[in-house]
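pinging the channel bc i need a second pair of eyes. not urgent but kinda urgent?? the chain im working w is below, pasted from the shared doc
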Amino acid sequence: MKLFQHDYFPHITGDRVSLRQIKDADLDDLIEISFYDAIQAKTVQQAAEMQSKINQDYLDGNSIHWGIVDNITDKIVGTCGYYRGLDKGEGELGCVLLSKYYGKGYMTDGMSLAIDFGLNTLGLKRIWAATGQQNVPARKLLERLNFVQIAEADDEIEYELRQASGK
């Protein structure tokens, strides 16, 4: 199912960060957080191959993957996006932050933009996320963003966005 009928990749600008398509020039900085099918890139070449698959997934309407960019420095600090469920009007929201930017609020800002896009542009009826039980920072992030725990299995916890009434 093709959900993205645009001729362009959506660029979302916020006060502090923006969400934009990842460019080849970004890949050197992103090896640490480049993953596809739970496999991490070890080289720029592997990161480029993964990014090519991610771009194709977008064109196929299966996912959307943004670089989170600091508006002042124009450097990518992390990534986020919707990776599953779009064909059902839902989206699994995921994110990864470069370690040197931990604890600075970038992910909260980036994920807030992605949530707004998912609800108001894509019209998603449900947004969820999953993380490991040991990933306390991710769990706190999701809770800050109004996600509530809905399931727990093995080492993974699933969360769902709870919107304020009236939305």
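so The radius of gyration is 15 Å. and The CA atoms of residues 130 and 158 lie 4 Å apart. — does that match what u expected or am i reading it wrong
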